Predict the structure.
Amino acid sequence: MEHKCTFSIVTVSYNCAGTIGKTIESVMRQDYAGKEYILIDGGSTDGTAELVKTHRNDFSYWCSEPDGGIYQGMNKGIAQAQGEWIIFMNAGDTFASTHVLSDIASYINKGEYDIVYGDILTGKNGAPKLKPASEPCNKQRMYFCHQAAFARTALLKQMPFDTRFNMSADFHFFKRCYLSGYRFRHVPVTVAVYDSHGVSNRQRIKGLRDNIRVIRELDKGWDKIKFLLKLYYVIGWIKLTKPMSH
């Protein structure tokens, strides 16, 4: 009998009472049986925790307590995860359809992979637009969306997110995996509708500076030089075209 993989879906939230509901509902609507749902709230004060409590029977684990930020919250979720594969669907983000996990499982069950990722729809300017990911490679930035990526839970338990990187710990993790020879697979599945009003979109230069720190630590030789030059160019261009507010 074919082994069916299991999933842990982790949502990290903080003061997002207006968007958390649609994320929870989207996860609960997944038609795949082999899943668990973990919600880590950072001690919200805007009613998020109260809203989460009304769904508490839907979670295999949940908590609401202050923590050191998004990646510490994610690491708490990883520590609780029992599924073989883990995906982070943060507040405001939703699955693109009710059968995403079933579609992903059909690829996972066919091959030996460590990280499987698909594409996303971005909700910018009204109509959702497909944003395809690139094929596996080494780059100066994320070339797929974290909310479209499934990693082996055992891998994240072994190498949790490095909280030294406030905005790029996911980039650090995936780059480290790629450079260490772990097996990546891009599959033609639209996984998530990504909420493009998140922290990384609001603080782009900070995020790019964090990417620079990741590259300085992990890349070598010509790759390192090339990636750093690209990022410094992008930062310079943003500063030129969007004057910084004081």
Observations:
- The mean pLDDT is 92.
- The chain is about 40% helix and 20% strand.
- The beta strands are 7-13, 35-41, 61-64, 85-88, 94-95, 115-122, 129-131, 149-152, 184-194.
- The longest helix spans residues 221-241.
